[in-house]
Amino acid sequence: MPIATTNPATGETVKTFDELSEAELQRKLGLAHDRWRAYRTTSFEERATWLRAAADLFEEEADFAARLMTTEMGKTLGAARREALKCAHGMRYYADHAAGFLADEPLADPSQVGAKRALGRYQPLGPVLAVMPWNFPMWQVMRFAAPALMAGNVGLLKHASNVPQCALYLEDVFRRGGFPEGCFQTLLISAGRVESVLRDPRVVAATLTGSEPAGRSVAAICGDEIKHTVLELGGSDPFIVMPSADLDRAAQAAVEARVQNNGQSCIAAKRFIVHSDVYDAFTGRFVSRMRELKVGDPFETSTDIGPVATEQGRADIEELVDDAISAGATVLCGGQRPAGPGWFYPPTVIGDITPDMRIFAEEVFGPVASLYRAADIEQALEIANATSFGLGSNAWTNDEAEQQRFVSDLEAGQVFINGKTISYPELPFGGIKRSGYGRELAAHGIREFCNLKTIWIG
């Protein structure tokens, strides 16, 4: 895949970029290693000052950053601006809390291990490679970069090839915020060159957000090299609606949860599992709201859904939808691409899903919702957990016993009751099963790329 900005609303290639030469790549890896040796000795106060300055730039330039994101991957301008501001919030969160999260952890009674003092101390690991996706081209990177930099690590970014301007902007923001040269570098390289970077001894760990095949590849390489990894992969999140739910609120949240980011979010609700007693009432509300959404130019304020980010992405959606239809699924709205340029796909709702359809087991990365009918909470949980993924989940019920059952028995890294799944800097984020391992955000996220060193003083 060429490194290029291609506007998904028009299909026009706006700008192309040359890959780093091997000499340039080696220079950047050397700079990261050398910089880390000095940067790790800086104080939390120094790092926080630089990170807050970079956050100020994000806020001041939110409109510019938003236009970059919309141009490169097609999210609506409003959503892109909110993403830029969320980056600033995440940066300030770690600037404020990193020192506390990484404070020494003394043993209350060191004499029980025969010591005068005994404690755990968090220390940075070194240069970390981040392999990042295009769907949240700035926030996804910031979830790694802000905690990694505050911990004293340095970052190397291998971004998706269709968002090169976003990748270069991120490097520039950290530089202008005051971080020393080499603390955060963008590597404009193809996917085929990632393995050599992962195997380089100067790179000590890696984090990846992306597809299951990409995660498997990175994990295998790093396992061979015995390097730490954090993986956030796909999701096929359930959205369960029980009879006690507020159906109007649930239906509106279901629309937002499915079509956020033009439907291209790992934590977007994808499978809507509705109790038989309220199936028809919920479905009517849900389908009606999905039909009302406006698909169009993502720069227009009246647009609800922009294009899918890539031409191949739209083809993948069409394959899954067409497969379901051919096997007997019912299309309640959408289901056919519109005429004209760009990679648009309409909000689509499909019912009568059966296990023999690909859409039953595979993630649909676009504005397509699958509807399932459940007779009771047992069947709802059975359907919800009948997937190899386990990232996020949603359940709508005002029955406290049902709420506790969903919290206990939904197989996911996150459970949201009466709300849609969202990433917050204040809460740990990650999945189980084939949705990956490790955690981003909160205290857990900053500790992922630290050595917890045991210290015993006699």
UniProtKB/TrEMBL annotation:
Name under which the protein is recorded: NADP-dependent succinic semialdehyde dehydrogenase
Top-level taxon in the UniProt lineage: Bacteria
Coiled-coil region: none
Record-linked SUPFAM superfamilies: ALDH-like
UniProt domain Aldehyde dehydrogenase: residue ranges: 3-455
Organism of this sequence: Nonomuraea monospora
Alphabetical list of NCBIfam families matching this protein: PRK09406.1
Keywords, in A-Z order: NADP, Oxidoreductase
Homology family: Belongs to the aldehyde dehydrogenase family.
Family annotation (Gene3D superfamilies): Aldehyde Dehydrogenase, Chain A, domain 1, Aldehyde Dehydrogenase, Chain A, domain 2
